[in-house]
Amino acid sequence: MRLTLNEVKKRIEGIIPKTLEYEIDVEAGSIAIITRAPQEFGKGGGESLTVKIAKAIRRRVVIRPHGDLLLAEEEVEQRILETIPQDAQVRNVFIDPALSEVTIECDDPSIAVGHKGSIIQSLRDDIGWLINIARAPAFESRTQHDIRRYRREMADERRALLRKFGTRIYRPKRPGQPWARITALGSYREVGRAMHLVTTNESKVLVDVGAKPTVNKNEIQPFFNAPELLPLDNIDAVVITHAHVDHIAMLPVLFRYGYRGPVYCTPPTRDLMTLLQIDYVKVSQAEGNDPPYSKADIQECIKHVVDIGHGEKTDIAPDIKISMENAGHILGSSSVYMHIGEGSNEHRLLFSGDIKYEKSWLFDAATVRFPKADTLVIESTYGGPQDFQPNRIDATHEIQDLVRLAVSRSGKIFCPVFAVGRSQEVMLAIDQLFKSGDVSPVTVWLDGMISEATAIHASHPDYLNRELRKQVLRGGEENPFNSPWFKQVDSREQRESIINDPSPCIVLATSGMMTGGPIMEYFKNWAPELNNTLCFVGYQASGTMGRRLQSGHPEVPMVDRGQTHMVPVACNVVTIDGFSGHSDRKQLMDYVKALNPTPRRIICHHGDPQTCNAFRQGLRDAFRVQTHAPANLETIRLM
Prior knowledge:
The protein is α/β, with parallel strands linked by helices. Helices cover 33% and strands 22% of the residues. The chain has four domains: 5-68, GMP Synthetase, Chain A, domain 3, CATH 3.30.300.230; 70-136, GMP Synthetase, Chain A, domain 3, CATH 3.30.300; 149-172 and 179-386 and 582-637, 4-Layer Sandwich (Metallo-beta-lactamase, Chain A); 392-448 and 489-579, Rossmann fold (3-Layer(aba) Sandwich).
């Protein structure tokens, strides 16, 4: 149901009693009602004014208190501390003036809320601000803290941007027959630099903007120079599925060259992608390369992010709505369900994102509950005929056996890991082993961004599976990330001390494909020794150091202080596939089978050329539907 903003306002006017004062504004795809009587809109529960309005206009509706009701920012925190009982242990107060919201983090939210919400209701009446109560994480994320501080400083600009985004969504309808197509701008017949362009007769939307892990500088960025993409002003929105480098690392490039539209993603993705983008700049500089963007470009990106939780629906363009659902891959990872057009001229497009269709240590299995998907764009990383992986239980036993053996030999295990996802899963498997008492614990060193990424996991417990969420929220010794054997490497000197220490230990270090980062220091020093073990737990892309070592090279070249020398590989080299965040061929097939009805068209990407084509053929034979494995720069018409 396509409504102009004036039509939306007229429908709302017909519902709200004349006695209530209010204003109507837009916040990206949401309709905001600003009022001096916000409590009146929540009365009646399921039949409240807010619910009636949302049903009438079929849009997300938010109720904001009028500015006259808001206590001055500088007084808010003091009033909170005076009102909430000390036993609740308030740890942080975060103010977001752009949304008139206050988030209160405390050790015991139930005490803070009070009997039947009495304390919070009293506080809300006193300060006027909307209030969110959250349990304080076991350890704070510096990245999340910095993002909240920056958003508060940029509140006026963010409010103006949300209005600008919303105004663009509600622009007048363009004439002509509706159509839609998808253009491959990265990650097609390759792994890395994911970028998809969805174009309709009215809109342009990008999904993911990643980098490719490769030594070929000409292939690092997606196809920004494709004429379909330009000018950047014509892009209505960017949607991010998850925060791995191959999906987010080049997003700030868009802002460097003038994009000023919205970026839609989940809150964990927002935090993790900011962490990884800042690191991408640092790594580029450390390797003597000019980074493709600056910290200022990253901050500009943060300012334009519109948060969407799993299960929330929102308009992102005049003819496109999306919802984001759990993909089971990493924290906050999402499948993007895109509803294009309406009535007889509609198309349901599902981007699987990177998926894990199996419950893991961290997450529930990827969601398959979608009303209908006419076209599915699916990852193919392990879609080849021989790509079958052990399940999580077998993988856990495998790494635990490896730890037992290494400790018994007084050897060292060093794992190249992605800071996000695989690190935390391996930590949980090791934690279970050490807590079982079967093995005397050794120190597990976390080198790189792993500790900060883990802190972000602790800050978003709602995105973890139920068992882990309970453990994290209970805190203390029950929180596995708090276990004493996990220790952060804080300096180069400490890293050198660990390398030279003969004691057995485990090191989890970035980068996950050994394309740089601290893992290279451990590799250089420990690879020549027979007693040590190099353990891969994640995908190794073609052309990376990790892939060469997996292939069994007895020695590999490494640049050290400007000089290239060969590093002999005498250590054990082990791959434990079951920890991958990607589904294998059987799980991918099961995922498609579980979609009801089966998509009429399936597009394969995010895999090497042979794998994409083999997976396409397997899908065609199994489901008797149209399948494609296009190359980059090809376009497929959807309707």
